[in-house]
Amino acid sequence: MEVLRDNQNRRFGAWSFLLNESDLKRLDRREGVLIGSYTRGPVEIYDQKGQIIRAQTYFAVRQREGDFAPYEDYIGLYIRGAKHFGLPAGYIESLEHIQNQAKTD
């Protein structure tokens, strides 16, 4: 999941993967790190037991002023996953709010 750099808000997710450095470089290319679409950086995530896991995530880079909304089908994928994995209702509502402002093509 890509996130904005924002220490004030919680993000929820359901997936994490173990990757080696070669895999990370390949994923960087796929996600557009080399062309400036995203940056990769460290985050701390918590498992279901509350244990801290140090991880990496992708942060979106604003390309143009006012152009930061995701595509509707992309945010829809997050909403379906959040519902499937039983993430908090308030979080799902925040995703649905984003979906209402999403790009359609």
Order of strands, widest sheet: 1-3-2
The helix/strand class is alpha+beta
How far apart, in Å, are the first and last alpha carbons? 20 Å
Number of contiguous helices: 3
Q: Which H/E pattern describes the elements?
A: EHEEHH
Q: How would you characterize the largest beta sheet?
A: 3 strands, mixed
Uncertain residue ranges: none
Strand content: 15-25%
- Classified in CATH, the superfamily of the largest domain is Gamma-glutamyl cyclotransferase-like
CATH architecture tag of the largest domain: Roll
DSSP strand tally: 3
CATH topology of the largest domain: Hypothetical upf0131 protein ytfp
Tell me roughly what share of residues is in helical segments.
25-40%
Shape: globular
Salient structural properties:
single chain, 105 residues, alpha+beta, Hypothetical upf0131 protein ytfp, 3 helices, globular
Task: Characterise the protein shown here.
The chain is of the alpha+beta class and 105 residues long. It has two domains: 1-63, Roll (Hypothetical upf0131 protein ytfp); 69-105, no CATH class. It contains three helices and three strands. Strands 1-3-2 form a three-stranded mixed sheet, with no helix packed on it. Helix 2 (72-84) packs antiparallel against helix 3 (89-100). It is globular, with a radius of gyration of 14 Å. The two termini are 20 Å apart. The relative contact order is 0.17.
